[in-house]
Write a structure and sequence with these properties.
- The complex is a heterodimer of chains A (about 450) and B (about 425).
- With about 450 residues, chain A is mainly alpha-helical.
- Helices cover about 75% and strands about 5% of the residues of chain A.
- Chain A contains 14 helices and four strands.
- In chain A, strand 2, helix 13 and strand 3 form a beta-alpha-beta unit.
- The longest helix of chain A is centred in the first third of the chain and has 60 residues.
- Chain B is about 5% helix and about 45% strand.
- The radius of gyration of chain B is 23 Å and the shape is globular.
- Classes of the chains: A mainly alpha (about 450), B mainly beta (about 425).
- The interface between A and B is large, with 31 and 40 residues.
Chain lengths: ~450, ~425
């Protein structure tokens, strides 16, 4: 709607100005020089009279200053030509608008998906932390994340307002320029206009690609960051960058700027939505975690204590698989719900196995990934494979050789415990390191 | 909604054909068509009553109400006194005749009891052990004539029956009878998938110590390895033209979707997400794939053109969504919807993007449409045991198919059989 309104405004300005404004050469230079409302741009255009003098000899376009030198028929024909040119230019701008609209929608969609992804990842990471019995800290982080997101949205809103003002201002400039441009009848200028439109379209496509590349990068980052706060900050930074990009673009093209303003608005909405969703999911995760907090805390503490004890004994036992209580005696890695990376607390265990395999190149190990029964059998087979492959990566980094390791998945098909409860499920979310292979 | 037991349990022992599954039915269609099925002449001389099969099929669909036969049993049109059948809209009559070579000729007519005209008639000759198949065929004809949709009583289902370590891949009629073990091993069997012509099954087993995809002929029983790359080979599904399968492999890292010919050649990777992409399902025109992916942080359903390009996320409700399957008309898809720790069977319309839950939720997995799109078969649990269930695509009628022994899982509904 906005684009159509601007198109109409632009077209009317073109027609209004075409009758009394001489053509000019470099539109962009002139636009920067003017930087003022339409009428001022017309009056103060530097070099305008020169252009009029030069061109009037060729086609007698300018009717106000040159009317005594042109016949009435010529004037009418010229005017008709001017109007046609104005329409053509307006159409070109509209086409450009449509393309920018498409780019905006794509960028907004990518941003929304990226934001949703970041929120979901953040919620999962938080869930993992909660399982490590840091409910209180996570609660504070989630609340802070929501606040930060809200704050980011506010800051962003101010920036958006600034961008809108700049856009409006630039729109006025560009409208004046476009009007002046439309007054230029000869085909070379129309070609230039077409070329400019094509260039703008190419720019839009490039911007779209850049946006999607940025979204992909952001997705990878979001997966790594450990807290919702981080995600909110990243989203805010991204939004700020895009707002500044919008301001930068305002200097180039008014129509483009208007489209960008709409894009920024959409992205602001996406950021708001992601903030709201992040808050909602954080609170959901918090509630879920509260239920089993005590249990998880006890479990985590026990695991930590066991790990510490094992580390203490490792010095004695690290070169032997058979010594009970050593890190190497631990042959199962357990995971939080739907996670497939080796948990931090088990990294030392896996690294000890890596060292052992590096020192015993004839030993082979089979990594058997499992998943709990929730989800589909196919999905759980995939999840178990990701778990086994995650352990394999740590083993390879730690010096084990590819040929020593086979990673497979049993999905939900071979559960350690068949009950339908978290106690059973937490036993079934695991990777076993099986040295009993030929 | 008012739900009531229409029928309790079929006593399989009393029937000559053994059913591995017993059927319970709950609920009824919005409008039930009253039909009378008159026992066929000489039917009592057969080992298997044909009209019993027809009646049971029609009842099971939830769309028909069987009008009890009166004391009169007409077998030919001229014997019918329509005034005797006022409660019925349609009337099925017929006769069987055992020929000298042991084959049986079945004559059958469907009459419009209101207009008092013959709707159609058919005569079929078959071997004596084909009477259930003949019954299903007659039920299909009645169903199609009276509802306007093709019947699925002659179609088959595949499922896995697990008893302890033993896993059996089973193919049966859609009512659970006529079951046949295709494969029996002491390792898990997963993900059976029918070829479009119903002559082959693709499936996954762990018998080689990791997940391997096989294709087995139901005609010759021969099987070949379709994919045995390192890691997991899983989730096979046939393209509608039968010339390719989509499979999920971890040969290049994360589980991703690939296309492969039925002979295992011409492997081509379709997704490049670095996340889990699995459970592909072809659109009926073969142009699109639905699949499950956790690329967005949770398991959700996406759609992408088979030729690649960007995937579009389709599900946003609940905590996770799994196991998408296209409807036969391509206008909707059925899937497992996880919310608050429960799994529901749900359908979502592509155009409106509206999701509808078909079940009250529980441990419900792996839904698949009947080939006429009117029913959905899925795995669920009762008294801690895996069983199969069928729900009508409007959620009104539910059937439960319980196994006599062990758990039943991984069901999938087969295609229409070419007649």
């Amino acid at each position: 709607m906005k684009n159509i309104a601007i198109g109409v405004l632009l077209a009317s300005l073109l027609v209004a100005c075409a009758s009394d404004e001489p053509p000019v050469g470099d539109l962009k230079k002139r636009g920067r020089a003017a930087g003022v409302p339409v009428s001022a741009a017309v009056d103060s255009a530097p070099g305008a009279s020169v252009a009029v003098d030069t061109l009037s000899g060729q086609n007698g376009v300018s009717q106000t200053s040159q009317s005594t030198r042109a016949s009435d028929q010529e004037a009418a024909a010229a005017k008709a030509a001017i109007e046609e040119a104005a329409l053509a230019a307006a159409r070109a701008v509209e086409v450009q608008n449509a393309e920018l609209e498409a780019a905006r929608v794509a960028a907004a969609k990518a941003a929304a998906e990226e934001a949703a992804l970041a929120a979901a990842r953040a919620a999962e990471v938080q869930n993992a932390e909660l399982e490590a019995a840091r409910v209180a800290a996570a609660k504070a982080a989630a609340e802070e994340a929501a606040l930060a997101a809200a704050r980011a949205a506010e800051v962003h809103s101010a920036e958006l307002e600034a961008a809108r003002v700049a856009a409006a201002k630039a729109a006025a400039e560009e409208a004046a320029l476009a009007a002046a441009r439309a007054a230029e009848v000869h085909s070379a200028e129309l070609e230039a206009a077409k070329a400019a439109a094509a260039q703008a379209a190419a720019d839009a496509a490039a911007a779209r690609e850049a946006a999607s590349a940025a979204a992909a990068r952001e997705a990878a980052n979001a997966a790594k960051v450990a807290a919702e706060l981080e995600a909110a900050k990243a989203a805010a930074a991204q939004a700020a960058a895009e707002a500044s990009a919008a301001r930068e673009a305002a200097n180039v093209s008014a129509a483009r700027e208007v489209a960008n303003a709409a894009k920024v608005a959409a992205e602001l909405e996406a950021v708001k939505a992601s903030a709201a969703q992040a808050a909602a999911e954080a609170s959901a995760a918090r509630e879920a975690a509260n239920v089993s907090a005590a249990q998880n805390a006890a479990k985590a503490n026990a695991a930590r204590d066991a790990a510490k004890a094992a580390i203490a004994r490792e010095v004695v036992a690290e070169d032997s698989l058979g010594i009970p209580g050593s890190l190497l005696a631990k042959r199962s890695i357990y995971y939080p719900i739907d996670m497939d990376a080796v948990p931090e607390q088990d990294k030392r265990t896996v690294q000890a196995h890596a060292k052992y395999l590096a020192e015993h190149p004839n030993r082979l190990v089979r990594l058997e990934g499992h998943a709990d029964e929730r989800g589909s059998s196919e999905y759980n087979l995939a999840l178990g494979q990701r778990r086994a492959d995650g352990v394999k990566k740590v083993l390879l980094v730690g010096g084990a050789k590819e040929g020593q390791i086979e990673s497979v998945s049993y999905g939900e098909e071979k559960p350690m415990s068949t009950a339908h409860n978290e106690a059973a499920w937490s036993q079934n979310r695991r990777t076993d390191l099986n040295y009993n292979v030929k | 909604m008012l739900r009531y037991w229409v029928l309790l349990v079929l006593f399989c022992a009393a029937l000559p054909a053994r059913a591995a599954l017993t059927i319970d039915i709950v609920g009824a269609g919005e409008r039930q068509i009253p039909v009378a099925i008159v026992p066929f002449a000489n039917e009592d001389k057969l080992a298997q009553s044909i009209t019993e099969v027809v009646s049971m099929d029609l009842k099971r669909s939830g769309l028909f109400r069987l009008v009890s036969p009166t004391s009169k049993t007409p077998h030919e049109p001229h014997e019918v006194v329509y005034a005797d059948w006022r409660g019925a809209e349609a009337l099925a009559i017929g006769s069987v005749e055992t020929q000298q070579d042991g084959r049986v000729m079945v004559k059958f007519r469907l009459l419009d009891a209101v207009k008092q005209t013959e709707l159609f008639g058919q005569a079929v000759t078959a071997k004596g052990d084909q009477m259930r198949a003949i019954g299903h065929r007659i039920a299909d004809l009645i169903y199609e004539r009276l509802t306007g949709n093709p019947g699925v009583f002659s179609t088959r289902i595949a499922y896995v029956n697990r008893q302890g370590k033993n896993n059996r891949l089973v193919v049966a009629d859609s009512d659970g009878y006529n079951d046949r073990v295709v494969l029996s091993i002491n390792e898990p069997i997963m993900s059976p998938a029918w070829s479009p012509d119903g002559s082959q099954l693709a499936y996954v087993t762990l018998e080689q110590g990791h997940a391997v995809v096989y294709v087995q002929s139901l005609v010759t029983n021969q099987r070949v390895v379709l994919s045995n790359a390192r890691g997991s080979n899983s989730a096979p599904v046939w393209a509608p033209d039968g010339k390719h399968l989509a499979v999920v492999l971890t040969r290049d890292g994360s589980p991703q979707i690939y296309l492969v010919r039925p002979d295992g050649t011409d492997l081509r990777r379709l997704t490049f997400s670095g996340a889990i992409d699995t459970e592909p399902s072809f659109s009926p025109d073969g142009q699109y794939l639905l699949f499950t992916s956790d690329r967005g942080g949770s398991a959700q359903i996406y759609r992408m053109p088979v030729e690649g390009k960007a995937a579009e996320r389709l599900t946003f409700e609940g905590s996770n969504n799994f196991s998408p399957r296209y409807s036969p008309d391509g206008k909707s898809f059925v899937f497992a919807h996880q919310i608050s720790g429960r799994f529901h069977v749900a359908v979502q319309d592509f155009q409106s993007r509206q999701m509808q839950l078909l079940t009250e939720g529980g441990w419900e997995k792996r839904p698949s449409f009947s080939p006429n799109g009117k029913l959905v078969l899925f795995a669920t649990e009762a008294q801690g045991r895996g069983i199969l269930a069928i729900v009508s695509s409007d959620g009104r009628v539910k059937q439960r198919l319980s196994s006599q022994a062990g758990e039943v899982r991984e069901p999938t509904w087969g295609p229409f059989l070419k007649q």
